[in-house]
Amino acid sequence: MTTPASDSPFAPVSGLLAGLDLLQIEQSGPVVHIRLNRPAKRNAINDTLVAQLHTAFVNLPADTRAVVVSGAGNHFCAGLDLSELVERDIHGAILHSRGWHAAFDAVQFGKVPVIAVLHGAVVGGGLELAASCQIRVAEDSAYFGLPEGQRGIFVGGGGSVRIPRLMGMARMTDMMLTGRVFDADQGERYGVVNYRTVDGAGLAKGIELARKIAGNAPMTAFAVMHALPRIVEMSPAEGLFTESLMAAAASNTPEAQDRLRAFLEGRAGKVVKQP
User: What's this model's pTM, rounded to 2 decimal places?
Assistant: First the structure.
C-alpha cells in the first residue's frame, strides 16, 4: 500500500492548465488547488470562466487525487456575470445553461473529490458551483444567496437539482422568492456547509481535508463520488443491487486488498473518536 507524497509546497502547474488566465492552478503532490481569479468582479462567472473551469476539471494532472476550489480576493463567487448577460433566443439560452451543466458535472462527476473553500459571497452561480463539490468549508464571512428572483431569471447551472438536495426545497424557494440570505452558521445548520472555520483559515482546512482524501483508495473515492449520489435516487431494490456491484468492485482492487491485510495485521489504525 502506498500513499502519495503530500507535504511538498504548492507550485504552478504547466502545460494546458497554465494557460487558463481566469484561474490560478497549483499542485502539491496529489492535491490540486484551483482558484477563481476575477477578484475585481467578485469572481463572477462569465462564459470564459465557466469554459476554463470545464477545461481544468477534464484535464487534471494524472496524479491528482483531490482538488480544492477557492476564490481570489474577498469573495468565493458572486454568481453569473450579469454584465455579460445578453439576450438570447430560447435555443441559445438552453445551450448556455447546458454549458454550465457540463462544467459543473465535470466537478461533481469528475476524476477526484473536490472541496470548495467558501468566503464572502457564495451567491447564485457561486452557490451552484459549491453545490457541485463533494465537501464545502465555510469561513465566518461566507454568505449564501440566490437573487435570481429579483433579477428576473432562474438558476441555470444545476442549482435546481443540487441545492435542494443540500438544504431542502423549502429553503431554496424562500431564498429565490424573498432574496433571503443565509450566513455561514445557517449554511452549516441547513446542510450546505460541512466544515466551519474562522476567516483566513478555510484554505488550510480545505487542503488538510484534501490531503486526507488523497490517501484513500482511488476506487473507493470514485464509488463515493459516482455511485452514492445515483444510488440515493434509485428505488431501494435497484440501489441495493448497485451497492453490491460497487462494493465488489471496490473491495477487490489490489490496493483494497493491501489495505485490508494491513488492518488485519495490525499495521493500520482503528476508528477512534475525533478530538
Answer: 0.91
Q: Using DSSP, state whether 33 is helix, strand or coil.
A: strand
Contact assessment for residue 144 and residue 126, using Cβ atoms and an 8 Å cutoff: no
The residue whose grid cell reads 463515493 is 224
> DSSP states of 112-165 as a string?
S-EEEEE-SEEETHHHHHHHHSSEEEEETT-EEE-THHHHT----SSHHHHHHH
Compute the radius of gyration of the chain from its Cα atoms. Answer: 19
Catalytic residues: 128, 148
Task: Looking at 26-108, list the stretches that DSSP marks H as alpha helix, in order from N- to C-terminal side.
Answer: 47-58, 90-108
Nine-digit cell string for 103:
462544467
What percent of the chain lies above the pLDDT cut of 70? 91
Which residue has better confidence, 103 or 153?
103
d(CA 222, CA 258) in angstroms, rounded, equals 18
CB burial string 253-262: b at 16+ within 10 A, e below = eeebeebeee
User: CA dist 275 to 189, 197, 268, 272, Å?
Assistant: 21, 16, 19, 9
**Cα–Cα distances in Å, from 94 out to 75, 157, 161, 220?**
28, 11, 16, 35
